[in-house]
Design goal:
By secondary structure, the chain is an alpha/beta fold. The chain is 32% helix and 24% strand. Strands 1-7-6-4-5 form a five-stranded mixed sheet, with helices on both faces. A four-stranded mixed sheet has the order 8-13-12-11, with helices on both faces. The longest helix is centred in the C-terminal third of the chain and has 22 residues. The protein is globular. The two termini are 18 Å apart. Bound molecules: oxa(dethia)-CoA.
Length: 324
């Protein structure tokens, strides 16, 4: 038995912020952003919290799967911008959707969070502990973005995606996760700084900082490596893989991965132009688009690959089953 996607759902805030909108607040241009990243616009929340986006994506995934919230055994949410340090985002979603029988917790693996969550669910399914799970990737990165820093503020967006997983015969064929904490400073968002009655300082709140080129190099190395590892140990050739569903960080990263794998771009669907980089939400948002467009058929093999702060990376090889 293995984890199978029974239903997908997604939700993004209504407000669209274009590159031209950003050119009014920092020194940038539509031309620079589009040519360096492929991003044309992103959604930015004007009131909804991460758990609001996540709960709506979860409701849609449950509806698509035909599963009731009370039938969920487990909720795992990947997020790096939860509403609170605690309770977890997953617990907040649990309360919002009424998943009274589920254990709920968050995973902190940044842009690889959704893939890490799927890996964890697979562990529970393989051991027979749980049968039905909800995995969510949800972010309101707009609240940790430094809106005066043009090197980061043009990249990110808010959104959420969710998938209901069931323990069935067809689904995840293999998966992997990896981390390299020594490169953590390349992409970082400090929590509150230390400050208390002994230090005599007040805690300050951190914003995201990034060494873009370091992250770029890391992604272009680790993503093809992960994909090739999964194909090799499952005796698959490139022709066996229908789509590569990559974390949407930068169109140029996707193109570089395609070149390294010697695969055509039409096997790499993208949503980066309309959502920007939504971190852990990007893979389920993309999957949701693919399902809506009828791109996936029974038996299709896809590889999902996430990478990001930590540094973290993970990949899932999945055989699609037309239950969604
Ligand atoms: O989920 C993972 C999250 N992170 C990532 O995926 C980031 C991966 N890295 C990237 O996507 C790219 O490195 C960036 C898009 C962040 C940057 O692209 P780049 O081609 O590596 O540009 P750069 O950092 O080398 O900057 C080139 C120039 C610099 O000016 P000078 O020094 O050449 O005069 C920057 O100051 O572009 C300048 N620049 C900008 N100009 C206009 C940086 N940001 C902007 C901007 N608008 N928004």
């Amino acid at each position: 038995m293995t984890a199978s996607i029974a239903g997908i759902g997604a939700y993004v805030p209504e407000t669209i912020v274009t590159n031209d909108d950003l050119a009014k607040i920092v020194e940038t241009s539509d031309e620079w952003i589009t040519s360096r990243t492929g991003i044309r616009e992103r959604r930015i929340s004007t009131g909804e919290e991460t758990s609001d986006l996540a709960a709506e994506a979860a409701r849609r995934a449950l509806a698509a799967a035909g599963v009731k919230a009370e039938d969920l055994d487990l909720i795992i949410m990947g997020t790096s911008s939860p509403d609170c340090n605690y309770p977890s985002g997953a617990c907040e979603v649990q309360a919002k959707i009424g998943a009274v029988n589920a254990a709920a917790f968050d995973v902190s693996a940044a842009c690889a969070g959704f893939i890490f969550a799927m890996n964890i669910v697979q562990g529970f399914f393989k051991s027979g502990i749980y049968q039905t799970a909800l995995v969510i990737g949800a972010e309101t990165l707009s609240k940790v973005t430094d809106w005066t820093d043009r090197s980061t503020c043009v990249l990110f967006g808010d959104g959420a995606g969710a998938a209901v997983l069931k323990n069935e015969k067809t689904g995840i064929l293999d998966m992997l996760m990896g981390s390299d904490g020594t490169k953590g400073e390349a992409l970082m968002c400090k929590s509150r700084t230390l400050g208390n009655f002994l230090t005599g300082t007040k805690p300050e709140i951190g914003f995201m900082t990034m060494d873009g080129q370091e992250v770029f190099r890391f992604a272009v190395k680790r993503v093809p490596e992960s994909i090739e590892t999964l194909m090799k140990r499952n005796h698959m050739e490139k022709d066996d893989i229908r789509y590569y569903v990559l974390h949407q960080a930068n169109e140029r990263i996707v193109e570089a991965v395609a070149r390294r794998l010697k695969e055509p771009m039409d096997k790499f669907p993208m949503t980066i132009a309309k959502y920007g980089n939504t971190s852990t939400a990007s893979i389920p948002l993309l999957l949701n688009d693919m399902v809506e467009q009828g791109m996936l058929k029974d038996g299709d093999k896809i590889i999902m690959s996430g990478f990001g702060a930590g540094m973290t990376w993970g990949a899932v090889l999945l055989e699609w089953k037309q239950s969604v």
